[in-house]
Design goal:
Layout: H1 4-18, H2 44-58, H3 68-72, H4 76-86
């Protein structure tokens, strides 16, 4: 069973809740749209806050000094796929 759509919805809700994006519904986050810059408009502080929440909730450590880190946060889909592959909770 493919759990990708469920985890994407869950991570979209996590992004909205963690970053207090009251004007945005989770379903408005396009899976392939950029999370940073011209996309959702997140910045490095948002990435740090989101990283801490992902680690707490899923047991997936995302360190800013990892070269792969930027690729993980490219989109909702890439973040969801990474969490799905590496989650311990």
């Amino acid at each position: 069973m493919n759990d990708a759509p469920n985890i994407e919805r869950e991570i979209a809700r996590l992004i909205v809740d963690t970053l207090h994006l009251e004007d945005l519904a989770p379903e408005q986050i396009e899976p392939e749209a950029p999370l940073f810059g011209e996309g959702l408009g997140l910045d490095s502080l948002d990435m740090l806050e989101l990283s801490m929440e992902v680690e707490q909730r899923y047991g997936v450590a995302l360190r800013s000094d990892e070269p792969e880190h930027i690729k993980i946060f490219v989109s909702l889909r890439s973040l969801s796929e990474y969490i799905q592959l590496h989650r311990v909770r």
